[in-house]
Amino acid sequence: MSSLKAQRDLKFGIVGATGEVGRTMIEVLEERGYNLPNMRLFSSKRSAGSTLTFNSKKILVEELTEATMKEGFDFLLFSAGKEISKKFAPIAAAYGSTVIDNSSAFRMNHSIPLVVPEINAHILNGYQGIIANPNCSTIQLVLTLNPLHLHYNLKQVIVTTMQAVSGSGYKGINELKSQILDDNFKSNVYPRKIAYNCIPQIGPILKNAFSEEEMKMLDETQKIMNCSCSVDATTVRVPVTYGHSESVYAEFEKEFNLNDVKKILKNTPSIKVWVDYPTALETKGDDLSHIGRLRISHNGKGLLFWNVADNVRVGAATNAVKILEYFIHE
Ligand SMILES: NC(=O)c1ccc[n+]([C@@H]2O[C@H](COP(=O)([O-])OP(=O)(O)OC[C@H]3O[C@@H](n4cnc5c(N)ncnc54)[C@H](OP(=O)(O)O)[C@@H]3O)[C@@H](O)[C@H]2O)c1
To answer: Ligand 1 centroid to 21 CA: how many Å?
Structure first.
């Protein structure tokens, strides 16, 4: 890692530090050897006053306020939800902070870069302001599709996701655990009971009959990969705590064969190709997008595979830290 001295001087903060993503960001920064003695941590009133540990040092969690956002940070990682980002990120950016935002608030804003560093970090060259981190189910998918797109030109994707409850933050995990313990525990986070069940709706169902999450997968894939491929998703919430699984069908403009596809994927550092298949429990805690069950469709036109990744890391915290890393290295 470049310049430890420069890191020591960085004015750095995490907004939403006590949440699933925020706590994982702290873990990822620590694992990657960051030395950030000026790290500040922010939450709502609920967790303000508690402490979190970074590099064996306890840090007091502060309540997020407009005044603190006006202090001007070198970098702020936001993961406190869309409404908080909409309100506070522009203030922070106006006062000189580079904001890496995990929410959906700015992702489809034309002037805001939507970044998966392995794919399009170059668009950050010379940029300062708000940067959007994509949706979790999209990041793991584009990590697998982009290397193939570069060779064969992606035309069409049909994907069904099986998304863990941690994708809804700590409230999702609590609802699953509570319903496993108590059959009558009321659903607050999800539209139906999540324990022992699968719910084919993530986010509201829109006028076009797709859910909000399904539209994010289409719009964000096109924006990140700078392509006009179609992405038809069915997004499903499943009673898994960590790890999103996706069943993917992809067609390309150019001809491909399975051996070359495997070679391309095996030579991509952010991907692990399994001889059989990965599962959510086996991939928790790492930063790779895992692939298995690679095969050609019966009509010979499509590639089918199974894709799993740790949603909180690959789909959020690690991607944000990799964006930060891009700036630090630059
Ligand atoms: N979980 C994932 O896999 C994932 C993946 C991609 C993107 N994201 C996005 O990342 C964001 C956070 O997700 P999460 O899963 O970490 O959620 P979470 O576990 O519910 O945590 C939410 C965090 O936001 C803080 N917060 C809530 N209201 C606040 C307020 N009024 N002012 C300041 N801080 C406030 C919470 O603080 P308290 O402790 O005080 O409540 C907590 O630190 C969301 O936008 C989500 O869509 C999540």
So the answer is: 7
pLDDT tens digits, residue range 235-285? 999 999 999 999 999 999 999 999 999 999 999 999 999 999 999 999 999
Q: Which CATH architecture has domain 137-311?
A: 2-Layer Sandwich (3.30)
Task: Answer whether 84 contacts ligand 1 (Cβ < 6 A).
Answer: yes
User: Is the model's pLDDT at 7 over the cut of 60?
Assistant: yes
CATH: 3.40.50.720, 3.30.70.260, 3.40.50.2300, 1.10.1740.10. Which one for 4-134+316-329? 3.40.50.720
Contact between 105 and 75 under an 8 Å Cβ cutoff? The reply is no
173 lines ligand 1 (CB under 6 A): no
Would you state the pLDDT for residue 329? Answer: 84
Helix (H, G, I), strand (E, B) or coil at 136: helix
- pLDDT(92) > 50: yes
Model confidence pTM above 0.85: yes
pLDDT at residue 3, rounded to an integer: 57
Residue of 42, 102, 140 with the most ligand 1 atoms within 8 Å of its CB, for mutation: 102
In the chain, domain spans:
4-134+316-329, 137-311
CA 311–ligand 1 middle distance (angstroms): 14
pLDDT the model gives residue 261 = 98
Encode 274-302: b = buried (16+ Cβ within 10 Å), e = exposed. Answer: beebbbbeebbeebbbbbbebeeeeeeeb
Average pLDDT of every residue of the chain: 96
**Ligand 1 pocket, mutate which of 20, 76, 312 (most atoms under 8 A from CB):** 20
139 lines ligand 1 (CB under 6 A): no
